[in-house]
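ok new one. same drill as before - C-alpha cells go in, u give me an amino acid for every spot. 125 of them this time. try not to just spam alanines like last time pls lmao
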C-alpha cells in the first residue's frame, strides 16, 4: 500500500445498518478520514453503525480515540457502534485498553447485524 492510499473506508447500507469497511493503517495521519465518515453518519441521523476491521492491518491510539469521540452521541441517539471481524493484532490493542467492556465486538459481521435487528424489534415493541 502506498502512502497516499494507506487507509481507505468503503461504506454500504445493509438492512438498517450503515457499514464501514476499514482497510490499511489507522493512525494519527489517517484518523481524520474515519472521524469525518462517522461525523457524517451521525449528522445524518444514521446511528446504527457497524465497523468491519477485516482489512485493517494497524490501529494506533489516535484511531481508537475516534471511536471514543462518537460512542456517547450515537448511544444517546438510540443507536450503537458495533465492531466486527478484527484481526488478532488489532483486537489485542482494543483489548489492552479495555474496549471490549465499552463496545460490542463481534467475530462476524452477520452476528452484529442480527444484534442491531433484534434491538430494533425490542425498541418498537
Amino acid at each position: 500500500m502506498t502512502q497516499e492510499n494507506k487507509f481507505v473506508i468503503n461504506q454500504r447500507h445493509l438492512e438498517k445498518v450503515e457499514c464501514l469497511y476499514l482497510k490499511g493503517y489507522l493512525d494519527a495521519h489517517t484518523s481524520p478520514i474515519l472521524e469525518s465518515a462517522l461525523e457524517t453518519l451521525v449528522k445524518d441521523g444514521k446511528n446504527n453503525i457497524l465497523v468491519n476491521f477485516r482489512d485493517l492491518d494497524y490501529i494506533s491510539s489516535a484511531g481508537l480515540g475516534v471511536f471514543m469521540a462518537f460512542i456517547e452521541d450515537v448511544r444517546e441517539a438510540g443507536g450503537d457502534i458495533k465492531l466486527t471481524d478484527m484481526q488478532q493484532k488489532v483486537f489485542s490493542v482494543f483489548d489492552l485498553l479495555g474496549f471490549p467492556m465499552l463496545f460490542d465486538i463481534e467475530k462476524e459481521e452477520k452476528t452484529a447485524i442480527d444484534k442491531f435487528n433484534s434491538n430494533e424489534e425490542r425498541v418498537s415493541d
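The chain has one domain: 3-111. and btw Residues 3-111 form a domain with the Transcription Regulator spoIIAA fold (CATH 3.30.750.24).
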